[in-house]
What does this fold into?
Amino acid sequence: MDKKFHFQVTFLKNKLSLIIYILTAIWILGDVHTRFFTIIKSTSSQQPVNNFKPFISPQINEKQAIKLSEKYKKFQVIDEIANESTLRMPLSKQTLQQGKLNILFLGDNKLKLKAVIQTENSLSQDYYALIEVENIVKKTKKIAKYYQDDKVLGYKLSIKNNTQVNLFPIKNNMNKITLVMYKN
It folds into this structure.
């Protein structure tokens, strides 16, 4: 006990340690003052601060709007409204489809491979393909889930790898097709 007291007395006699104690005490007092007394001052004034001004965007008149739209007309691309006949592939060309394709036309439908997903369970690894089926006539799209050996609009699906599926014809007058997510 005596040694501990003696160490503290000699420590306080050292000028460097005394300066460090004083600076630390000043810093602690300043910190306590800014944390507690500034909160009391800010809560004591009950006047709300209304320094907000609404943003008013600049407005143009009708003549200026017409001039601007005329200037931008040369940059606008005119979209031609395509009718059903330009969007659909004729049946004669549909039967000629073969090989690796990004898009497959079958009747009124357009097929795109979106993903091949592997699921693992305790017994085996299963794969299924997500294919976007777009009906061109009805203008509807849906993502359909197909497993190995499922029937897809007259074809039998076989998953080749994680970016390709094979479609084998159920009827003999159609060609084998590999539907790919992207071409290399």
Remarks:
- The chain has two domains: 2-40, 88-180.
- The first strand starts at residue 99 and ends at 101.
- Residues 80-86 have pLDDT under 50 and may be disordered.
